[in-house]
Amino acid sequence: MDVIPAIDLLAGQCVRLYQGDYERSQVFDDHPVAVAQKWVEQGATWLHVVDLDGAKSGQVTNLSAIAAIVEAVPIKVQVGGGLRDRASVSQLLALGVQRAILGTVAVEQPELVRSLCAEFPGQIVVGIDARNGKVATRGWLETSEVLATQLAKQMESFGAAAIIYTDIHRDGTLQGPNLAALRELAATITIPIIASGGVSSITDLLNLLGLESLGVNAAIVGKAIYTGDISLSQALQAVGSGRWQDVPPDLGSSTFA
Prior knowledge:
With about 260 residues, the chain is of the alpha/beta class.
């Protein structure tokens, strides 16, 4: 599987939240481009960038930082946070972002997701952020009554390239991923799943590797690589570079918004 480092942007800074709580943010670096380059040097083949301000406000806010990251690194970048209309998605993809991550609109405007999947095949990924099995929206500030498995199945039928699954209670806690929830999700859909939230060690990544045959093809790692609990280069050596990045985006089968 692949290990994808996360860069969460808040007011132009690289931060991590604890369980999605904006009041419990920790600044790790004032220079997101330098952070991106660091992960590239350690072997990253993808970057996962989240515009936290955008997720909260509903419109892309850290556009200049995102553009600078895309321009500075030779690897693929996926971006989420505040993508609530076609114009925002089109703008990011025009910058060179490889994949746009949709979250809130998947719940509130599912037909928009359907149309974007048709217009940008293979470039639309749906982020499902769950709290007790139900989908959270608007920067995790609200929790819907929609079940994560139900939404994933619908998004697969619309042509989403992959699902990024985040267990909010695990995110930023270094408590390990929710393997049971990932297994349940994998039993529901056939498109690739990217695990996110709670990864704290190489052991956690090896546990996720055990789910690769079920469709969990990649893992996003955030806080642990910033605190030093995980070395990105060692993690990539341990679980191997995944197949996801080798699949042409127009096939739509590769593996916060």
